[in-house]
């Protein structure tokens, strides 16, 4: 194994793992992950990893429970194979939205899942664009939190949009939109949104000037695209010239793709934290940016015990 990091890919995003391995110039460690007929997951590491610095690459995207369980089982297999250090590389972290109690008698699943991953045997965790930054504190292991902002901002600069306005789809994302607006030296807007139920949102009022402007909605994730399409419709009614959107994680569950195709949205920029191969074929409005170089750089720095902090800054 030499002095190279050992990369193991789960089945959630093999394409991204291959991209990371290509940038680091190491092959993926052979690993056999299959399901028994009853759905139970089996994992066997097919190479010697004793004493190795292992990075397990697995997004906990839909089907969330299957991919989460697969991550935990792979961590356990690596631990029992006597790896020296185990880092869970989780580009997209599921269950992150339940990060606090907003109603009586409800769970805080972000903390629960954090405990499961920590207790499975990891030594550190690597994320990108968590839904809530405080989730880093749910782990009692070192956490490195990467940001997709630089990649997305640089791409927006190349789009040549005139009179650009960055818009947050709700009050909770204002800080994120402000970072983009400052980086792009453009205007800022906010949509006053009222959530009427799980995955049901209604746009109410628009704060800021969007008339005859090219608008870019910015969010950390797009799930069913209900909030996004409501925001697009509200902005077009307010006189926006064009409406684009960007996010780090495009989950696009349920009718997400159908809603995008039916909306006046021009384009949705996202990263490949979740494999978008099938969705790109169904939705021509989706443009995917590659985060493999970012994760490859972070993994190499962690492996070599170098500072990762410069990757957090923008």
Q: Taking Cα atoms only, what radius of gyration do you get, to the nearest Å?
A: 20 Å
CATH topology of the largest domain: Rossmann fold
Number of helices: 9
Helix- and strand-based class? alpha/beta
What is the CATH C level class of the largest domain, in words?
A: Alpha Beta
User: Which stretches are low in confidence, meaning pLDDT under 50 for 5 or more residues running?
Assistant: none
Average pLDDT value? Answer: 94
Please give a structural write-up.
- The chain has 314 residues and is an alpha/beta fold.
- It has helices at 14-24, 64-80, 109-120, 149-157, 174-184, 226-237, 256-262, 277-282, 292-303; strands at 6-9, 31-35, 41-45, 53-57, 85-90, 124-128, 143-146, 164-168, 187-197, 200-207, 214-222, 242-250, 268-271, 286-289.
- The chain is 31% helix and 27% strand.
- The chain starts with 5 loop residues before the first strand and ends in an 11-residue tail after the last helix.
- The chain folds into 2 domains: 6-146 and 292-311, 3-Layer(aba) Sandwich (Rossmann fold), CATH 3.40.50.2020; 149-289, Rossmann fold.
- Helix 8 links the parallel strand 13 and strand 14 (286-289).
- It is globular, with a radius of gyration of 20 Å.
